[in-house]
Every structure is written in structure tokens, then in C-alpha cells.
Amino acid sequence: MSTQPTAAAAGTIDVGGDLTVNRLGFGAMRITGRGIWGEPPSRGQAIATLRRVVELGVNFIDTADSYGPSVSEELIAEALHPYPDDLVIATKGGLVRPAPNRWEADGHPEHLREVCEGSLRRLRLEQIPLYQFHRPDPAVPLAESVGALREAQRIVPIVSVQNRYNVADRRSQSMIDICEQEQLVFLPWAPIQETDKRVAVAVAAERHGATEHQVVLAWLLATSPQILPIPGTGSPAHAEENIAAASLELSPQEIRAISQGG
């Protein structure tokens, strides 16, 4: 991988039947401050990271109103608006960030309406291409939360699922199977965590002259055509490294060994 590959090397995926994006996106949680709270250590570096990923073919960015809170969406708009025609910005509502390293669910209809409108303002959008319910609130009936964003499936189709999934946490495998059957996009969060849990990852990295993070991203891309990895970082160099994984091809034996924990 001597020349810098682009996200286009991962191929494309359809989101909801009317949006087509490259199958390696960017998660914009890490461009905020420590603990996903406040401003990043370097606002200039965060903006440079966003601009670099778009330069390298990323046209799907995942964010949320609670990242910062508000900071991630504001930075995306500052760095990239007016947006390229093919750029899809997905955002979320339903979690509140009251302090560093704390998440609290809020699925009340009035909250969801408020944060959705706030996301539109911060992102400088008239319409959000993909809006996601961050997490059900145990204190609020799901029908009430979803109803605030219109009734799922009947009016606004469900087109994506976002769950934790990586080499060490495979609990959402059955959900990926459903996504394949229903042609839904599966967005794995924490996709490159716990890479040290698989010896096969280290072996493949050495064989390909790649990093372990690149190997697990390549493994995700090979695991299912419905997976759209969204690795995040606040560093342009790290973003380049992640995107380079789009051109890394693992053998069937390597994929099997990583999947089986070898």
C-alpha cells in the first residue's frame, strides 16, 4: 500500500435504495474533546481530519447531536459546508451527554423533535439524509419515541442498524444476518477496538505489511456486503491509515481464522 488508496476501493453500498456511498465511512465522535466532551485539543486538526477523509473518497459521515454535545456537528459544517453533492451526513438523537464519559437516554418526543431541529441548524441542512434513533429510552415507550420521528416502516423506512461489533464482540452477528436478508445497512461502532484479542489479526498484519487496525477493517468489509465500517479519529494521518484498509484483501483462510478466534 505504497500509494494512498481511497474509500472507493471498498466498493459502494446503497442506503435506503436512493443513496449510494463508498463502503468505508467516517465516525465523527472522536473529533470532540476528551471524554467526548467539549472542544477538541486542536480545532484546526479536527477540521483538517474531516477535510482529508472527504478528499480520500469518504462520502458517509456518522455523527450525533450528543457528540460534544453539538461540537461534532458544528465542526462538520465548518469544515465541509457547502457539502459535496455525494456526501451523506447521518446523525442521531436520543442520548444526552451531561458530562464527560457519561451517556443518558432521553427518548421523550419533545426532546427528539428539539435535537433533530438542532442538528438541522448546526449541520446547515434543510434535510438530514439519514437520521438514527441513538438508543431506546427505558423510561419512554418506543412507540412514543419513534412516533416523534414518524412511525417506523409505515412512513419513514428503516434503512440502517448501528450496533457494537468487532473481532472480539460478535453478539450482533444475527442482526447482520437480518440486515443481509432485508438489505439494511449495518454500521458497526467500536469497529477497531480489541484488535489484540485475535492472534490471527497480528499474523495477517505482518503478512500484508499492514497495521492490525487495517486488518480488522478489511475483515469487516469481507464479513458482509451490508457492513459499512465507520472508524473514527481526530488525526488526518490516522484517518489515512484507516482508509488505506479499503484496498487490503484478506484471503479466505485469514478471514476464517480471524472470525474463529485463531
How do the helices and strands follow one another from N- to C-terminus? Answer: EEEHEHEEEHEHEHEHHHH
Query: Which spans of ≥5 residues are poorly predicted at pLDDT below 50?
Result: none
Distance between the termini: 25 Å
Write down the Rg: 18 Å
- The helical percent reads 25-40%
**How is the largest sheet built, in terms of strand order?**
3-4-5-8
Main β sheet profile: 4 strands, parallel
Record field, number of beta strands? 10
- Total helices: the number is 9
Query: β content, as a range?
Result: 5-15%
Overall description:
- It contains 9 helices and 10 strands.
- Helix 1 (43-55) crosses helix 2 (71-80) and helix 1 (43-55) packs parallel to helix 8.
- It has helices spanning 43-55, 71-80, 109-123, 142-148, 173-182, 199-208, 212-223, 236-244, 252-260; strands spanning 12-15, 19-22, 26-27, 60-62, 88-93, 95-96, 104-105, 130-133, 160-164, 185-189.
- Helices cover 36% and strands 14% of the residues.
Describe the structure concisely for a colleague.
With 262 residues, the protein is α/β, with parallel strands linked by helices. Helix content is 36%, strand content 14%. The chain has helices spanning 43-55, 71-80, 109-123, 142-148, 173-182, 199-208, 212-223, 236-244, 252-260; strands at 12-15, 19-22, 26-27, 60-62, 88-93, 95-96, 104-105, 130-133, 160-164, 185-189.
Record keyword descriptors for this entry.
single chain; 262 residues; alpha/beta; two-stranded antiparallel sheet; globular
